[in-house]
Structures are given as C-alpha cells and as structure tokens.
Amino acid sequence: MKKAAALLALGSLVVVCLSQFSPPAALLAVPQARLEAAYQAPITFYGKVADQFGNPVAGANVEMRVNDSSSRKGRVLKLTADAQGVFSIADVAGLSLYVSVSKAGYYRVRTQDGKRGSEDGFAYGEDLGHGIHKPEPGNPAIFLLQKEGVKETLVRQKEVDRRIAKDGSPLQFLLGDGNASHAIVLQCWTQDENVITGGQYDWHMKVTVPHGGLIPRVGDFAFEAPQDGYVSADEYTMAKSTPSAQWKDFVEKSYFVRFADGVYARVNVRILAYGAHSAVFSSYLNPKPGSRNLEEDPRKR
C-alpha cells in the first residue's frame, strides 16, 4: 500500500532532525579522521524572522542546536531576535546547525515546496546532500512566522474515524453543533476485487453538502471563508491506469463550507481506499450566521 509517511531520524546522533539532509547513512562512507574534523568546523550564522507580510518579528525566540559531537545530541543555544528580527551566532563549531523560531501571538509555519518555514537545518562540516551553508551578513536566512488574526469561539468536531462502504453507500458526518442540517456526506466506490497485493485499481470518492455548498481550502492559515464560488459536491477519481508514481490509495481534502442558513465552517476529510476502507473527518464551525471568520481561539473551546 502506498501511504504517506514521514521518516524522521529522531534520536540520531549524527543528524538531529535535519529534514533537508540525507539520513545518517550519508556519513557512513566518510573516513573517521575526516568525520572527527567535520565536527570541529567553525559555525557562523545570520538569520532573520519575518511574518507573512515581510515585517520583522522583533523579540522572536530562537533555538539553535549545534551538532558538535557524534556521541551526544548536541548543544542547545537560545537567543532573542532584535528589533529588526535579526539574530546571529559565531565562535561555535560543529557538523551542522538546526534552527527553530517561535513567538507568542504567531503560528509556526511548515516548510513547503522548498520554501523555508519556522525551522531549518544547515550543514557546515560535511555536505549532507544540499551543500555547505555559506553565511552572509547582508543576506540572512529568513524564517517565517504567521501573525495571528482575530479569533472566534468555534464549534470544534474532533477527528472521527469511521468505516466507509466501497459501493457508494453514503456516510454522514455532523459538524458538532447538534444541527442536523450542518452535515456533509462522503461516498466511496472501489473496484479492488481480485487485485493482487500492492496492485492498482479504480476508485472514486465524492463529498456532498446536502444543505449548502463547499469550496476547496488551500493553506494552513486560510481562515476566512469566501463569499461566493460554492458548489454542492466535489469528486476525486483515481484510475487504475494512473502511472504508478502518481497512483495512491488515499486522498485528503480541506474545504470551506457554507450552509443554507448562512453558517460557515471549515472541514478536513481523508479517505483511505484500501483494506476495510475508512473515512476520517474533522471540522470547525462558526455558529454566528454570516460570519466567515474561522480562526479558532483554543482558549474558548
């Protein structure tokens, strides 16, 4: 089965969760003397913390892990960014450096599509697959934080995992506020009979809002639902003939939902179209009719 997986070298004494680097096996061929020298490589680093608008985040918390020994997890340094969001270190040594930033009132940002978010790793003593980092005072590494907006008290439906039929029988999920008209329906059709283990097959899924409409939601921080563009259903098809590198037996979708009574929500659905088949659902609903703000205040759950 082709399922998404995140392989982290947690606990590694060579690469401390440096997601952009090759796994520790990249160092196995390095002669011991050269490896020991790599842990003594001088480290100088210049960084800057900015928000989604490019504004500096003054006072951001910066944690740096210096991978300075093959026998322990490394030294942790904690700094605070200045008024321009800038920070730097010098006069330390190590094989690599891992940098993470945060601040109250801001969301941490994932690294996606090659764009650095709120954390990253940098090689100094040995090329671990993406080159040796070259520090430049006038061109600091940029780390992103997302400034929080105005938050609402939302009705949260925690993640629910249910079996879903392979013949298109509807499976209904309610959005947690007790209103039967605030629901979505999932369906799945799978033709996996007599398919050998690991083989491909045709399958199809459909998401329907019986009393409203939906529209795709893109981005972790998309919290304001659109006014227009909603449709009653969305469908996804995976054909048996899809090239093996692109074929998969699961799909995850995120939507904004607008109900007929003017109530808005955001939902996540995941269909696992293999084995017994299951559907995973979660949602956030704003109970105020007409309010499109779906940024939750977790303190008011």
Strand % is 35-45%
What is the averaged pLDDT score?
A: 88
For the CA atoms, what is the radius of gyration?
24 Å
Low-confidence stretches: 2-23
By helix and strand content, what is the structural category?
Answer: mainly beta
Envelope shape? flat
Tally of DSSP β-strands = 17
Secondary-structure blueprint:
Layout lengths: L31 H7 L3 E9 L10 E7 L7 E6 L5 E8 L2 E7 L3 E3 L10 E5 L17 E7 L7 E9 L7 E4 L8 E9 L10 E7 L3 E5 L16 E6 L11 E10 L4 E9 L5 E9 L15
Parallel strand pairs: 1-8
Antiparallel strand pairs: 1-4, 2-3, 2-5, 5-7, 6-8, 9-17, 10-11, 11-12, 12-14, 13-15, 15-16, 16-17
Describe the structure.
This protein is mainly β. The protein has two domains: 24-147, Immunoglobulin-like (Sandwich), CATH 2.60.40.1120; 155-300, no CATH class. Helix content is 2%, strand content 40%. The chain contains one helix and 17 strands. It has one helix at 32-38; strands at residues 42-50, 61-67, 75-80, 86-93, 96-102, 106-108, 119-123, 141-147, 155-163, 171-174, 183-191, 202-208, 212-216, 233-238, 250-259, 264-272, 278-286. The strands form four sheets. Strands 9-17-16-15-13 form a five-stranded antiparallel β-sheet, with no helix packed on it. The chain has a four-stranded mixed β-sheet with strand order 4-1-8-6, with no helix packed on it. Strands 3-2-5-7 form a four-stranded antiparallel β-sheet, with no helix packed on it. β15 and β16 (264-272) form a beta hairpin. The model is unreliable at 2-23 (pLDDT under 50).
